[in-house]
Amino acid sequence: MDVVFNQLFAGLSMASILLIIALGLAIIYGAMGVINLAHGEFVMLGAYTTWACQHYLGFGILLSLPFVFVVVGAIGWLIERTIVQRLYDRPLDTILATWGIGIMLQQLVRIVIGPESRFVSGPDFLRGNLEIGNVVMSNYRIFVIFFSIAVLLATWALLTKTEFGTKLRAVIQNRSISECYGIESKRIYSLTFAYGAGLAGIAGTLITPLFSTIPTMGTSLVVDAFLVVIIGGLGSIIGAAAAAVMIGELTAMFSLVINDTLGRIGVLACVIVLIRLRPRGLFPENTRG
Amino acid sequence: MSKILKYDLVALLVLFIIVLFGFPTFLGFDGYELNLYSRYLSLGIVSMALALSWGTTGILNLGQAATFGIGSYIMAMHLKIKGSADLPDFMVWNNVDVLPWFWVPFHSLSFTLVAGLLIPALVGGLIGVFMFRARISGVFVAVITLAFLVAFQLLVVNYQGYTGGQNGLTGLAPLTLFGWTVDTYSIQFYYLVAGCLIAALVIGLYLVHSKFGLILRAIREDANRTRFFGYNVASYETVIFCISAALAGWSGMLYTLVLQFASPTYMSVSFSLGIVIWCAVGGRNSVIAAAVGAIIVNILQGKLSDVYVEGWHMMLGATFVLVVLFMPRGLHGLVGTVWHRLSQRKADKKPQTVLSKKAKTGQTEGGR
Predict the structure, then answer these.
(1) Do the bridges between strand A135-138 and strand B176-177 make them parallel or antiparallel, or are there none, so unpaired?
(2) CB-based contact B144 A227, cutoff 8 Å
(3) From A279, which residue of chain B is nearest by alpha-carbon distance?
(4) A84, A86, A88, A103: best mutation site toward chain B, by most B Cβ within 10 Å?
(5) Are A276 and A233 in contact (CB under 8 A)?
(6) Which of A85, B55, B225, B263 has the fewest CB atoms within 10 Å distance of its CB?
(7) Whether A265 contacts chain B with CB within 8 A
(8) Interface of B with A in 177-236 (CB under 8 A)
(9) Is A272 an interface residue toward B (CB < 8 Å)?
(10) Has residue B120 got a pLDDT over 90?
């Protein structure tokens, strides 16, 4: 029984990181219909920025978080202004263009920093485990879970309580009418993209102690995040959260029953069937063009 | 004969001459280069297969590499059996005692050749029926095919005893075709591959210019409207998905022959998106342009990655972004625009016809 709880916990901590990645992707997709395949590379950039902070400035992970958010957000903003902005009426082409951007970012890191993996140490005061009975939970993973819930709430607040969020929701509902009311949709889009990229960067920071930091680390993450967004329903934050937990836990449970690889195949199969049955996701938002 | 068909036939003839005579005769290729160019030509087929589903019908298939990989593994299984005395070596290492049942029929060459087309088609058809019956389109097709590809590659790597796992199938025997042992560095083999490419292009052109192709293009423009006209859109989409998969399998078989091994990297996400890149660079709206795109990008890759490997990927990414941004219809669209401008200048004083107006607006489109 303890094995199951341990595995459930591992699934939850994976889900919480997936959630932060998918949240950015979901907002970008929900707001502008852009499937951002470079999102995994934003995660990778976040991880490398964290490494740079620790290596050159001696910052701990927590101290680098706001810094990473700003840096990766700025890169995202730049990419949106130069490339993505030209593709709003061609949703499928955004997949291709952002994949090209992803290749470039990956290669840039490989040339500038090098292909070998980089080590980032976790925060000292979160070392150690919390043990309840025979269930062992690492403090760092518990922190990640709570942090992702905080990010979720902050994003929800940003979208519902602030002027920016109101404008963004207006643009999502109907872009041209919002523009008639004086909302600069282009500016809103750029900021949204930057926010999503910044979230991906934060996720990159959080996984550095858990994953090895290599140039290709984003590719597998983005496929998962992509699935989370689609299953959750277009641009639905609640949906993304539910789907992230579902995929994280399904992966954990499948790998307990069978093995890791077959577990992942099982999850992918479930996802494919789910999209077939509910093409608009678990919690579809009613949006108009 | 319509105007577009005439252009396509001229393009096919030019390609035919370049491929059959230009490369081997005028450039004086031998051995290694013939093998290299056979590889490029075989990849032209899979790119052209993608153009049938993506450019013609508007279904972006990000999992094309899966059916390509199935074809390449099928060919490799036949050659592996021929190449090993008793059991394939990797099965012995993985403690598999008897040849698995699904390996047994691959003793026969004719079965292999048929299976290399039919099994990919069957897989494509199953996924197609699964998706298109539910009227899934656009981004969702991209996601499902991508997820399928990832799952399929994991599956192949996981069952090491049956598929060779991460190493793939290596140590293959040369193919024996009607008593002729194929030497992949020979001009005969090059002509075989070139012949396959031309044959595949003829099939593609026939499909595109038939009434079937017309309906496919109607589906691309507006699937719902086509449905209201009484066409069963799902079955058309499934059929073109099958054909595209079969052609990809064909391409995969040739690819295994050229490289003399099959590897799970043929089914990777980056290979699959590579196919999309070739197709986009050449021009997704024309089957010939898509094939040419694959050949050009691979020739460039062959030349440039020798000089600097890291820089090549950078350039590939940049090229891709630029093509998507500024040439949504690829080289094909660029040639079309230039051609149009030239003919426009000639006919400057004539009143503008409806046709040329249409062609003009056509250039700004290219959304899907």
Answers:
(1) unpaired
(2) no
(3) B136
(4) A103
(5) no
(6) B225
(7) yes
(8) none
(9) yes
(10) yes
* Domains defined for chain B, CATH in brackets: 3-348 (1.10.3470)
Among the ranges A60-69, A180-189, A216-225, B115-124, which has the highest mean pLDDT value?
B115-124
- Find all residues with CB under 8 Å of B340, minimum gap 6, and list them: B356, B359, B360, B363
Nearest to B138 among A92, A261, A268 (CB): A92
Cβ contact B269–A219 (<8 Å) = yes
* B328 touches A at CB < 8 Å: yes
CA distance B42 to B198: 10
Cβ under 8 Å to B: A residues 7-36: 35
Question: Which residues does A109 contact at the CB level (< 8 Å), separation at least 6?
Answer: A44, A45, A48, A215
* Per-residue CA distances from B137 to A84, A232, B134 (Å): 22, 17, 9
Residue of B nearest to A281 (CA): B140
Candidates A82, A251, A272: best to mutate against B (most CBs of B within 10 A) is A272
Please tell me the predicted confidence (pLDDT) of residue B167.
84
Closest alpha carbon to A206 in A168, A151, A273: A151
- pTM value? 0.85
The answer, yes or no, to whether residue B125 has pLDDT greater than 60, is: yes
The pLDDT assigned to B331 comes to: 82
Q: Does A104 touch chain B (CB under 8 A)?
A: yes
pLDDT digit string, tens, across residues B82-94: 887 778 888 878 7
Estimate the share of chain B in helix, then strand, then coil, as percent rounded to the nearest 5: 75, 0, 20
Q: How far apart are CA A137 and CA A10, in angstroms?
A: 8
Supply the mean pLDDT for chain A. 85
Nearest to A90 among B62, B321, B367 (CB): B367
In angstroms, the first-to-last Cα distance of chain B is 28
B316/A223 Cβ within 8 A: no
A83 in contact with chain B, both atoms CB, cutoff 8 A: yes
Q: Quote the pLDDT of residue B1.
A: 56
DSSP state of B20: I
Q: Which residues of A touch B135 (CB under 8 A)?
A: 279
**Closest by Cβ to B276, choosing from A96, A226, A271:** A96
Helices (H) and strands (E) in chain A, counts: 11, 2
The count of other CB atoms within 10 Å of the CB of residue A121 is 11
Do A2 and A135 touch, CB atoms closer than 8 A? Answer: yes
The candidate with the shortest Cα–Cα distance to A150, out of A227, A91, A80, A202, is A202
Average pLDDT over residues B171-192: 80
Instruction: For residue B363, name the pLDDT band (cuts at 50, 70, 90).
Output: very low
Q: For residue A118, list its beta bridge partners.
A: A213
Q: How confident is the model at residue B357 (pLDDT cuts 50, 70, 90)?
A: very low
Query: In whole angstroms, how far apart are CA A265 and each of A6, A13, A258, A272, B73?
Result: 22, 20, 11, 11, 20
Mean per-residue pLDDT for B161-181? 80
Which of A79, A81, A106, A107 best tests the B interface by mutation, with the highest count of B CBs <10 A? A107
What are the sequence ranges of the domains in chain A? Answer: 2-277
Four-point Cα dihedral B259, B262, B263, B266, nearest 10: 80
**Cβ of residue A257 closer than 8 Å to a chain B Cβ:** no
Q: What is the pLDDT of residue B351?
A: 54
